[in-house]
């Protein structure tokens, strides 16, 4: 074992290359030791290991009983750290007890195994801001103090011995300084004070009583910041909008202060983690900000000081965040049953039936990647890696075999399966539950395919090709339907181009079908691992499709890779197919079906569109960037492609100049 731990969410030892000594070998811990040095081993420094055997860990977010938050920052008041076992907001008023999330109540700390209130004589608004932030809320508000005075008189509080001193920009209470010891009366009451109460303002996505009808009266402004590539709500690569184009932030000086500004701006609380090194995937386009420095009180990350020059920054340094989000209780209403690991199993949901809560299965009719994505997100298990319509090999709870949810259709962005469209109480599932119930497997990482729009622009041209040279393409339906009635000596006019498809995600892109089920195409003498890998379409300016093409993934392989990354996949000799993280697959303009048949198209202006992985066969961390659009001009003799860009890369106003087209988020179902 060496002195490096991989980033959260990874156990891949290849992430780090170490040169130092290996301190431990053959460790045997019981789990109760306070340090690795107390575990039996060969002895410190005694090892026959190589660095290819280095180990890593992934730590759970759950705290063990008795854990104490320890502030590592120096404390200048009492020279003491805030050390408590846990913190909570306990709802007191009946109107708040049943609300989810809990937004108002007593602030209580667990110390010595007992929950205690905090005396409010030295409590400040800054302290409330920190408490709200750590529980996933962007801000605090005033509350009705008179009601709480009445409650405190009726029920005697148990006070903590100390006060708290926060500046307001801390991400967590443990980063605040310990205030003076409270002068409690002999009967344990707070001198001239009451228990601390906070009332927090939830973000729009977590509002307990959303006024959707009221909001429709206002035009929602284009946000200046967004998160991309995260597995769960409140995490992702940070992207900012500048001059109508989305770009990333370089991770130089990236810290919790700046990350918390982003989180609050987006309606979450403070940041749990400020991630660097493209940990949540690499973006495309420009790097807009570098060396960001925030005070923590800015309304937007765009108000912080930053270096406008991003010289030396690449997308390998894209900054990301994990934000504190409110506890919504979604995880408690869903479970995976029967799987070999906690990351897979039959999906079982908790529903109310005849006045009691019962567990049951989900009908698998139409169950797919998007539904599986929501399940994995709801359980905090990352991304979906597979969606299953049969689960006979996972024996779930027999008492939960009955179908309790059917007709589920998700967009893929919902926080809970119950938020997706479904039949409600009117169940319809001809195949039944049990062995035919829906199932999933989840993964902490996922690939992310992105087209290079510049390559399409630079390689577009037109070719007239005789039908007798297009027989294989004809057999694979790569020509317009009118080609059925034309003689063999006629020509087809083809709009040709190259496409370069990058994997900017965190895991390799692999075809869904296993090798034994790949389809052999005798004409082209190759295997198809995905029947439809890309769609090529030509639209009129009003959004009407006038020509189309498609490309089966007869060969998913690493054409080229970023520096330092080795190719893993090649199609020769029935090899493994896929696209490695940091590599790209190039489909050259001169191969069959890499075109749109425009023989029957009149000269004019059009919109050209490519969609990768259009049927969501393979789960990805972000589908919105799988689409690419271009302006296309055809004068009858030549063709031009210009203004090519990926879906979601431009502002809403700019996207609207491409009428009739949407980003690739469940547009094909």
UniProtKB/TrEMBL annotation:
An example Gene Ontology CC term for this record: membrane
GO MF terms held by the record: copper ion binding; protein-lysine 6-oxidase activity
Cofactor(s) demanded: Cu cation
Compartment list: Chromosome; Endoplasmic reticulum; Nucleus; Secreted, Extracellular space, Extracellular matrix, Basement membrane
Catalytic activity: L-lysyl-[protein] + O2 + H2O = (S)-2-amino-6-oxohexanoyl-[protein] + H2O2 + NH4(+)
SRCR domain span: 20-60, 89-201, 225-324, 334-443
Annotated GO biological process: chromatin organization; collagen fibril organization
Source domain of life: Eukaryota
Record keywords: Basement membrane, Calcium, Chromatin regulator, Chromosome, Copper, Disulfide bond, Endoplasmic reticulum, Extracellular matrix, Glycoprotein, LTQ, Metal-binding, Nucleus, Oxidoreductase, Repeat, Repressor, Secreted, Signal, TPQ, Transcription, Transcription regulation
Disulfide feature: 29-39, 166-176, 294-304, 410-420
EC number: 1.4.3.13
Pfam families associated with the record: Lysyl_oxidase, SRCR
UniProt name for this protein: Lysyl oxidase homolog
Taxonomic source organism: Lates calcarifer (Barramundi)
Classification of source organism: Eukaryota, Metazoa, Chordata, Craniata, Vertebrata
